[in-house]
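Case study.
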Amino acid sequence: MMTMMNGGGPASRRAMGRIGLWGPPGSGKTTYLAALNIAVLQSRERQMRLFGTDDSSTDFLKANTAQLTRDRVFPQATVVDQSLSWVLSMDQEIEVPKRPWGKRSVTVPVEINLDLLDAPGRSFTDLPAEDSDGGDGVDDSRLFGDEDGGDFDDLAADPSQDVMDQLSGCNGLVLLFDPTREWQKGDMFNYFQGTLLEIAQRRMQGRTEADGRLPHYVAVCVTKFDHPDVYRRARRGGYRSFSPYDPYLFPRVPDEFAEQFFVDLVKEADRGNAELVPNALRAFFRPERIQFFVTSAIGFHLNKRASRFQEQDFMNVVPRGSGDFQIRGPIHPINVAEPLLWLGQHIAEGR
Amino acid sequence: MCAADARPACPVCTRPALPEPYCECGWQLRAARRLGPVTDELRADFDRRLAAARRGYDARAAALITAEPGRLARWIRGGAPDSAQWAAARRDAATAAGGAIDEDLARKELATALRGLEDGAQALIIEIGPEGIGITRASMGAAGTPLFDADQPARLWPELLPGLSGHPDERMLQLAGGPGGPGRVALRNRVDEVIQALYGDRVLVVCRPAGWALLEEAAERIALAFPGSWLLRVAAEAAAPGAPVTLGTLTASMPLLHGYGVVVATVDPVTGAVAPATQPLFQPGDVPGAEALVTLRRFPGDRERATLAVAVDGAWSAEPHVVAVHTVPQPELPIYQVSAVLDASGQVRFTGPRGVTEHSRPWSDVWAGVPRQVDVRPTAVDLVCAIELAGEPAQVSRRRELVRELLEELRREYPEDASPRVSVIGCADHRYVPGEETQGVVRGVPLGSLADAVTGLAGLRGEEVAYRDAAPLEDLLQRAHRMLARAPDAGRARRLLLVAGRRPHPPALKVGAVPGAVVVHPCPQNYDWRSLNRRLGGAGVRTVVVADAPPARAARAGFWAEAATGGLHRLSGTTARAVGEDLGLFVRDGQRTGLPLRA
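After joint prediction, the assembly is written out as follows.
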């Protein structure tokens, strides 16, 4: 649920809304949330502030931020459902009606309440639980730099009805897509389809939108842009670009190319049907309410001597002798706050 | 007296009397007539003078033979001379032998005459001595050593002059000029008979001992027969008066014109080319009977018998000129000594160590079997032992143990003053942690003594794995290159032993085409293992790699293949000896030279 407020006066506006985090097991939801605080502080484009509305939310923010920055390890996976509430405050430019007709842009202080439901990814399975190692002896829940998939024995066999109810009631959804997992397991569409149908069933019951679509705004985040295999494809496919305003010259994939990049990524998978996801999204959600983003929670390694991105040494994750991974240096999240800002702006504008 | 000499003989020297009033021996043969009868007094005086003359004549001949007046008294007419007569006889003998040279000078003159021989030329050495006349042909061998060959058996005096006494003492007296010797004509005829058809590019006539009348006459006759010949009159050995003088001993006792040495192998530290050289054994001028002791060194790792070949010191065109070939067992210690005696020119006898035997094959066969290039470098070697220190403790321990065993082998096989210079270095993992990435990960001891290397190895302890997929082998290569880069200035061979389990870090991140493939972080120092391998190889550094478990195709491609220019081993299946052979520190079985080294 997101509430938008501007700083007092007749022009102040406030809208209530909720943003749900949606993604298969091991897609990096907890890490994404932990990196959000860093992304907010590093934002140069606008001044933003993020803070918790209750102790658990504040504690979550503190603990996971410390893990990323001080301990340089990935946060542990969320084991039980947690309802977190933060406030993201910023200056936001919105369009407001202008009498007698038309619209005008105004910059107003905005506060967005972010009620995020961080349910374990297991909740989104549409099929009976399978072994976490897929039967090949490899713990697939432990992917590149990702948090542990958690102890699934503690979860109910059936998907959490509460989670589905809350997701269906959200105004905005952040859908996390891990391309490295898709190459290995090819189960993205399974997770997506099952949850989508649950959401549609709950949201469409008794109320039908004019165009028959769900009213949600959906930010699809292709994660792990810093992974060598993902980055390589962005580079080879010509999706990579650099911003002259970025002093570190970290590469990015512009948002307008993010969906095509997603399609190219899923083509690499030998199995799975993730290429159906964009069509399914457009079938159930309004196209103008769907935006793809290419993100990285921890970003690329920054060579201190060079003080900018170096092509020959960009991995910010290091395999340790014990087999797990450690974050190599300071994190520079890429496109972590931007999906929430987009959701917040559009939900606030009511478009 | 020979029938041919039918003239009256001198009553003193018994030679045919000359027409002159005095005989050569000094006896007055004729005098003016004197008036009056021959009285008893005159006769007695004559007999007295004749007896004295005879005694003196015989004593002078005896004095040429011996210093003891009584030894040949039996053959002196008139009995043993008194002390005054003997003293006079000794003076006369010294006068007769005057101008003679001693044995040493005779050998030198002989050596000078032989040195002047041209290639293919022959010298004729005719010795006239108490036994008879000996003829020896001499030539200079290809190595500049004289080669003596008896032309024919010596012609003994009893055969040449049957009229000589059958008793050896009386015969010597006759040869020295005593009574009863053959006439001059008979002697000349026999001498001419002996030397007819003889030929030599250079002729040396040796009369020994000088002063003996018949020997001197024979020598002079022979010298005249060969114009341009050298006549050497050699005095009898002063230290052994009366000792028998044997024909052939002069040539047999000739000193060496050139030194002799034991053939050793030399190995070029850079190319490994094998060349022969000599370790001095006998010096020029050493005479038969000289003894020598030479210190040799065996090839590292070679415990087989070695060939002891004695060659002439000097400039060879292709291979040494060998005069003797033996074999010797080589001991446990790298250094050993061999003792020898010079029996004669070209004859060397080894007296130690125990077990020296004559070689069953000629030198030409032995030399043909010596490899002309070997991998082993017995001298001037710089060795860097580089160890990956991170890993399972047991595995790291095995790597360290291999290096320790190698150092121990080096200590056993190399003498201290020829030991390789050894460095032992190890690497811990790169730590991709802020503030620690660029820290050095290599530690150890620089090139130095074996003892220091052993101590340094003990100080290299195992480390925990901090980075799973690679080890800083590129840092080890960089350090090794830095240490070995200067070696060529000293003409040293350079060797690198790398003992590791994981592959190195690349110089830059490289993402493969297969999704999910392991991506290895680059070296924080930007060291490029491929470039370092090329530089090491280009600088002539031979690298042997011992890997914990090299991949199946490691020998053909990848880091292991490119690095292991000297050989790739699996840790569990190799030995320090095998590694050392590939490094060129120990001789391989198939590359034994069979020769010793200089100590």
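Observations recorded in class. Residues 506 and 522 of chain B are 5 Å apart (CA to CA). The first strand of chain B starts at residue 123 and ends at 128. We will return to this complex in the next lecture.
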